[in-house]
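look at this fold:
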Amino acid sequence: MIIKTNQDEIQNYLTDASNYKGRCEAVYIPQSKEELLQILKDANQRKTKVTISGAGTGLTGARVPDGGIVISTEKLNKIIEINTTENYVVAEPGVYLSHLLDELKMINYFYPPDPTEKNCFIGGTVATNASGAKTFKYGATRNFVDELEIILANGDELYLKRGEVFANDDILNVKTKSGRNISLKLPRYNLPVTKNASGYFIQPNMDAIDLFIGSEGTLGVFSKMKLKILPLPERIISMVCFFDDEIDALSFIDEARKISFQTRQNNHEDAPDALALEFFDRNSLKFLAKEFNSLPNRNSAVWFEQETDLSNEEQLLEKWFALIVNNNGTEEDVWFAVSEKERKSLEEFRHAISWKVNEYIANHKLRKLGTDVAVPDSEMFNFYNFLKNTMDKCQLNYVLYGHLGNSHFHLNMLPQNEDEYLTGKEIYRKICKKAIDLNGTVSAEHGIGKLKTQYLIDMFGLEIVNQMKEIKKQFDPNYILGVGNIFS
């Protein structure tokens, strides 16, 4: 075990990609499950707050401590097993997503959840139910978690396997390794009909494992996880198309989305079926212009991909080009990857906006003001118009992009000083409330952390949030784990 107490050595554990900052007494770095158990037992006996730290790529302050100690999972970083017969991988929480993807690619497999930031830990992606561009086809992390080994706050262990433990209506019973039975009365609330990472996942008759996925380090610590993997597709069509009007880009996404759903429903192999549909507004393209000087003089763009094979690739390309032209795009401006190297280049374009925004925020020494809201698909145009009208009135600099295959908008405000930051905070809450009014979510993929606790109350109401909090107390009676995450 490694223990760091020198403040100069622990500064990297006191912040995350949102530029939120905290404090702690010490950082503990266990090198085995046994060490992790002991740290938690000792902390629980002393009632010392414990914050679980991943790679620091989060955007909500979840891994940032407010006193107490930090447990970093960085040394719990083994890929224990890759099984291509039953298509799964077993890994510890500190495995980098990028490392896992590289290992799988060597044997022609992949792990579908696709967060923009690949330098995150697998444990962190499960803790936040992370998602990304490929969520449009494959869904979020939840869909790929089969088993979890969890260490509770008192050092007791809990093993959950998908399909084995279910709630009976709104009563959920789980048994720990020591034989302790934990009985939970589940609150009743409606989850949004879109991708969602806000608060605990609760449904009648739910699978117990789903309660822990997306629980943001508040219920227990993952020590091992079993995840589904899939064979790599033979080929992937990757394209960026450009439009003069942002509404044309949205119309292209809307039509491509509907066709994709029909293709899946009818099991067609020769029709468009997008893996991802990503939108970039005019401001985003201007923001990226210095990095990509070959950008055409257009006002919006869509990046999309589709899995395919050689037998139908040409036919699919014709249909995609027809769809682009049908929505007032032009074939001449399309960026199209014909090799893996070119595809990676298009991926870099798609990912660049996120790191450029983070760089801007860090340089201006402000906290990030980037929405993570999603709405039902039927409200995509309505919500887009609301965002544009709101930002036009306030005259703050901003970029708007996102995973619009899932009607998931990242509107990042770019304040230039503290006054503009405070104005942006007011607008942020207004945007969240509008998403709630449209039956959407305040956090589609980043979680609540410490920065969005008020928005969770706006979304579900204080009574429901307090009922979620009672669930936490059943697993963590001394209230030491992830204090400040999800609940203020």
